[in-house]
Amino acid sequence: MNIACFGDNCIDSYRETGQAFPGGNPVNVAAYVRRLGESASYLGAVGDDPNGEILLSALRRKGVDVSHVRVVPGSTAVSYVSVVGGERTFTGFDEGVMADYRPGEEDIGFICRHDLAVTGLWGRSESALEAIRRRGVPTAYDASDDPFGRIAASALPHSTLFFFSDAESDEDEIRDKLARLRALGPDVVTATRGGRGSISFDGREFYTEGIVPCEVVDTMGAGDSYIAGFLVAWLGGRPLPGCMRAGAENAAVTIGYSGAWE
Fold this sequence. Notes:
The longest helix is centred in the C-terminal third of the chain and has 15 residues, at 240-254. The protein has 8 helices and 14 strands. It is an alpha/beta fold. Helix 1 packs across helix 7 and helix 7 (222-235) runs antiparallel to helix 8. The chain is globular and about 50 Å long.
């Protein structure tokens, strides 16, 4: 299987340690898809600065196809991160050249040669989802913690699989959100809930899945690795509970080390 991941990227800069890691939702998903042994491409924009080369070099080492990444004059996006007790907190963001990124027709044509297309809330790419779906390619969208916001609303009707994060709401509230979101277009809606696992709804039944116990070093990338594990299992024909379990297992690997990537 071959998955196209497009949209945002950044360098995750850890203030306390001075460490820096490649990141961004679709970038991370592409890297985790490769970790699971499948093919992945990433499309986005990086600056012609050292951070851009760091990000591209890291993706190439992972075996991700970066042939459709645009290198443009300017700075690569940087996300500033602090970690307290294993929990990461974003403390600032410089969008850099990603502020002007939009997938073009050639990009969409390339994406449609894949088995699945993945993007997210910060990628400025939701406008491409309708054209991708029209060509018969399934899509996955990560709404982060804003599934009912304006940007996610434009993605919902054109998303086959829709993900969001909510570690605060109780289970009844989550189920209500899942049902409301699923009615807006996706085949399956899944909420990741941090240490409380995940819940999915396919229009007929709600499914719950717990976490895989592990030592927590850094939660950076946990949600993205869950999505990657879920998507690979889904493309492989596994039933929904199996996809959720695959997501939890993949997330457990990621939170065992510092940074989104090992």
